[in-house]
Amino acid sequence: MNRWQNLWRYIPLVGLMLLLSGCGSDTLSALRPRGPVARDQLFLMELSLGIMVLVTVIVFAIYIYVLVRFRKKKGDKDIIPKQVEGSHVLEIIWTVVPIILLLILAVPTVSYTVKLAENHIGNKDAVHVKVTAHQFWWQFEYPELGISTAQDLVIPKGKKIAFEITSADVLHAFWVPSLAGKQDTNPGMTNTMYFEADDAAVFMGKCAELCGASHALMDFKVISKTEADFTKWVDKMKAPATISADARNGEQVFKDNCLACHAVSPEGLGMGPNLNGFASREMIAGVLPRIDKDGKDVSDAKLHEWISNPQSVKPGNKMPAFGPTGSKPLQDQQINDVIKYLNALK
User: Fold this and answer.
1) Rounded CA separation 96/75 (Å)
2) Edge-to-edge, what's the strand order for the sheet holding 172-176?
3) Domain coordinates of the chain in residue numbers?
4) Bridge partner list, 212
5) Residue range 155-174, pLDDT digits in tens
6) How far apart are CA 112 and CA 103, in angstroms?
7) What pTM was computed for the model?
8) Beta-carbon neighbour count of residue 226 at 10 Å?
9) How far is 299 from 344, CA to CA, in rounded Å?
10) Radius of gyration, alpha carbons of the chain
11) Contact 102, 141 (CB under 8 A)
12) So what's the architecture of 245-342 in CATH?
């Protein structure tokens, strides 16, 4: 009785696990593909899982049948059953069936592996993107388009996006579950992959390789647009930002303190993210929302938090603190002026 009482204690925990397994974003699941690459990969997962379930069911069915059919019944004498050896039929069955199952799994696996390993970098119909992983942010370059950005990867829907992926420091992994499986980013090496999105939507992306204190916060977004909207976005990224008079002070403070790491030009690269078009990004530092749960714009407060003490948001990142007690202290008014300037970078 005590054994069963202990077992019942675990039932609420199992129920809670099943309940929590349904939580999460629709765009952060490999089980809900939104592109052809993700669908192919899901098919392989379902195929292998189906074969495993089939084998498990058959084995357990035979086991239960033998257990019931040949169990010792009440009144049976203690005798040794007839010993049977060397059934050619059984030996053929348990040799041929696994070979057939292996072929069913191997043929599509090899086929899809070759297909998904195709390099589309030279494909004129594909959009070429160079991805560089940093602790703890993502850099995206569009060499044919002459622009560079960070954190928000913008793509046209229905077109192949050909990636060259590397790392600037340690091992990371580029992963957009709804669009494709993960690809490691290795320092000193370049890996390639491709995917495409079925429709215009926002997809969540993550680093899938433990890379430091803020690994869990190394998020990014893939923003899929119609081709017309994507072209407009490219044109806007190339157009100079209009800086109002009240943001000029902030521009000067930015140049004196931030420009050494952060570019603000269409194609600029630096130690930190390119801030061209920064005010149009959905998140600050990849993790701080501009809009709170009540629909209120909290961009200024979140930016102040990030600039003053980046380590409180992303421990281990390389940006210095500009708060009063930081390594490069600025006055509150100077930080507010920088925020006005950043909000003008649309």
Assistant:
1) 41
2) 152-156, 219-225, 202-207, 172-176, 180-185
3) 26-65+85-232, 245-342
4) none
5) 999 999 999 999 999 999 99
6) 14
7) 0.85
8) 13
9) 12
10) 28
11) no
12) Sandwich (2.60)
